[in-house]
Amino acid sequence: MTKGRTVFITLEDSERTLADRMRAWLQSVPAGQERENAERDLRANFAYLAREQARDLALTFTNRATTERHEPVVRHLSALVKGAVLVVLETASRLHGGPELNEALAVFAQAIERIAIDSGAAVVVVRHVSKEAAREQTIDSYVGRGGGALSDAARSILVMTPNVKRRKGEENAYDPSAPVKLTHAKANLSARGPTIVWQPVETKDGVYLRVLSGVEETTTNAQRLLAYLRGCPDGVTPTDLHKKKPAGLGRDAAMAAVEFLLASGSVAQSQEQRGRTKQAATVYRAVATRERP
Q1: Of the ranges 115-119, 124-128, 241-245, which is most confident?
Q2: Could you tell me if 239 and 274 are in contact, meaning their C-beta atoms sit under 8 angstroms apart?
Q3: CATH number for the domain running over 214-286
Q4: pTM for the full predicted model
C-alpha cells in the first residue's frame, strides 16, 4: 500500500464527530513514540470536509426526469483532491441527487470515475444498504436498488456487516459491541483480500474499531457461542449451528468456536438420538462448572 495524502469527505458527520473518532483512534495506539508518529502522520496526510463544509457537493441532480452530472462540483472535487492517494466519499445517497435506479446511478458512477481519472486518486464511495440486507448480512455486490450500475462500474467492492444476525422484527436490536466484518466481495484487478474482523472499543472520546487477530476472533466467537449454549439445556447439533446461525456466526466460524470450546473444556460433546427418525447426532452442551474462555 502506498503511503500518501488521504481525503475524507462526508455529508453525514459533523466536524466534532470526526474529531472524536480521530482522538479515539489515537488512544488505541500505544503511548509514546508510536502515538506521536501516528499523530504526525495524521496531521501530515489526512484531510477532511465534514457535513458543514460539504453539504453542497452533490455530484448529480435531476433535471425533470433525467439525472445529470453536476459538472462544476465534479471539477471542483477533482481539483480539491488532486494528488491524493485515497479519497473517501460518504454517502452515495447524499452525493447522488437522482433516484436509486440503474440509469441514474450509472450517471453517478461516471461522476466518481471522472474524479478518479482527473485526480489520480483511488476513490471510495460509502453506500448504505437496506435494513433487510444488513440484517441478513448480504455480501452480494448487487444488493439494493441500482446496485448493478454501481457494482459494474466499481473495480473493487468491500462489504461491512455487523457480525450478529438478528431475526425479523429486531431491526433495532443490533449489539453495538458486536464485532464488525469486512468482506472483499469483488476485485477486478487482483485476488480478493482476506476477511477482516474488527472489535468496537469504547474510549472516553468515542468508539474505534480494533482489528482482531485470528486467535482473538476465534476467542470472541467462542464467548458469544458459549453464551448461546448456556441458554440451550438440550444442546445443539452441527445442523443447528448451520441452519440457525446462533450468535450470528456462520457455519465455519461456529464450528471453529465449537472446537475452541471443546479444547478448553467449556463445552461437552455427546452422541444422541434426535429427530423423528431418532438418528444418531452429535450434540454440544455448555459445561456448567467451567468458566467462559
Answers
A1: 115-119
A2: no
A3: 1.10.10.10
A4: 0.72
